[in-house]
Amino acid sequence: FVQPPLALVWLACAGLWIALVVHDVQRRRPSAATLVVPWVVVATAALSFTDAALQVRFDLTRGAFEDAVATIPAGEDYVYDRRLVGTYMIRSMERVDGGVIMAEEIGDSLINDAGFAYLPAGPTPDLENGSFESPQWHDLGGGWWSWTASW
User: Fold this and answer.
1) What stretch of H or E contains 85?
2) What secondary structure does DSSP assign to 95-139, as a single string?
3) Of 75, 95, 71, 74, nearest to 83 (Cα)?
């Protein structure tokens, strides 16, 4: 599955490459750029099949996530407070046994959800409930996890 922004990058690269090839043919001489653009496409394709981009983006904003967890008001188990945490729009935070679950403001939020969790001991089956079904976890390190859940 290709994310829309990545598809736009690929389309832009394809258009640029075609323009470069046409220019090279008109000049009857190849340019270095004509060789570089296909490598950019290959690199973005390779990155799209790994979690490298997610890991880098999260690592750059890890401090903001730690601050968000630290600022949940005492005595509050669920905070619906749509706000920017790092570079992610978070719509809610919920205290759970052993940590905090954060729901990201993406997708339809009815059938598909995603977000982050601070669970130093890792996710447990107890987290799955009627409103949080079949979560898939990805370890981001340091007790942090990304998750997706679908019906």
Assistant:
1) strand 83-85
2) EETTEEEEEES-S-SSSEEEEEEE-TT---GGG-BTTB-S-EEEE
3) 71
Dig out the tokens for 113 from the structure.
């959800």
Q: Which of these, 102, 104, 137, lies nearest to 121 by C-alpha position?
A: 137
pLDDT in tens, 27-79: 888 888 787 878 887 887 777 778 788 888 899 999 999 999 999 988 888 88
Q: Are 100 and 127 in contact (CB under 8 A)?
A: no
Question: Do the Cβ atoms of 120 and 151 come closer than 8 Å?
Answer: no
End-to-end distance of the chain based on CA atoms, in angstroms?
A: 19
8 Å CB contact between 138 and 146? yes
Q: At 26, is the secondary structure helix, strand, or coil?
A: helix
d(CA 30, CA 119): 54
